Every structure is written in structure tokens, then in C-alpha cells.
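quick one before i forget lol
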Amino acid sequence: MKKNILLALRILVALILIQTLRFKFTAHPDSVYIFEKVGLEPFGRIAIGILELIAGILLLIPKTVWTGALLTLGIIGGAIMMHLTMLGIEINGDGGLLFSTAVFTFILAAIILYQFKKDIPFLKL
């Protein structure tokens, strides 16, 4: 995959992760509702926000891209599971926007991780 496309994907995933932080860190009612529903309010909301910030930063640093992508897969995978098991696809009338954004972000992070698999130290033989 071309370097420019990979860079664009990394920036896009980082932006998606980082732009949601204002909702988590300002205790936006939708964010509070979600985390209350899954029993993680307020500590889970803040902790997930911190992890998303770290993942977004790691995606932008060339030597840590794989770490950021792997962390993103874990975080977003958890979000997708919460949607499928506890929250539902639609949250507060959003038409499934949060869920579809999570799936989109998960797919992009998987592509990024696959493209940077050679950099994962514990996979080197």
C-alpha cells in the first residue's frame, strides 16, 4: 500500500479517536449515558478517553504505529461488543452513527496493523 495512503489512514483514525475526547472529558450527556448503561461511569469513560488519546498519538509516530493500531483494535473492539450486547446499534436517536463509526475505525485500524505487521517485535522470528 502506498505510503501516502497509509499516512492518510493513520491520520484519519487518530482524528476519529481524538475528536471523541471532548465528549468523554467534558462529561457530555450522551457519553455519560453510554458509560452509565454499561456500568463504567465515570472512571471507565475517563480511562477509555485516556487510552484513545494514547492510541491516537501512537498512530502518528512512525515507530509506534503498530502499537497504536493494536490498541485501537482493542478499544474499538470493546465498543463494538458493547453496542452488540448492551447498548444496541442506535444510541439516543443517532441512527447508528456511533456504531458505524466504530466499525469503520476498527476496519481501518486492522488495515493499518496488517500493513505494519513487520514492525511488531514479538512476531519476528
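fyi The mean pLDDT is 95.
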